[in-house]
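Chalcone isomerase-like protein
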Amino acid sequence: MQLNTTVKRLAGLALALCMTMQAGATEVAGIKFDESIQVAGTELKLNGAGIRYKAIFKVYAAGLYLKEKKTTVPEVLASQGPRRVTIVMLRDLSNEEFGRGFMTGIQQNTDKAEKSKMTMQFIRFGELFASVPELKKGDVMTNDWIPGVGTVVALNGKKMGDPYPDLAFYNALLRIWLGESPVDRSLKKAMLAEEDTRGR
């Protein structure tokens, strides 16, 4: 009798532990995104995460982190404090393919006036991809906005180049996924927490 009670208690503890662990991360295509992270000394919350598909192939999983959860694009673009987009590669991709996807997303979602103001930053951003021959499955890229510093891009924890100073540049990056012509509409919905991606 006492043994049964002990087993039940242990099972209950194990279940509670599993539930606690699940509450601490969102899983997308086998990739776990922490519910909260620290960027520049500020706690950010996972706004939403999803998968970037190209045709039927899973290219990468991406998660958007903000100080407070937002469900509309204008709210995200106007949000205060640090922000982060974390990208985890789900397959190998050449720098040309990955870079082309980024630059096409910017072209399709940024008006001419804005692009002309940030021409040099966009050129430098394009050159950044040339410095990485290939992105491998499991590689992690972070794109941070840090007030007073700028946009900081890192690959597997290693900073890539100097910061990009304009907030407009970071918002142009965000519109790759959240603009009127996003690279993947289902990913846009997921990053805005419009659909549940847990367990996908």
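thats it. Residues 10-23, 196-200 have pLDDT under 50 and may be disordered. The helical segments are 2-23, 73-78, 95-109, 112-117, 119-130, 167-178, 185-191. bye
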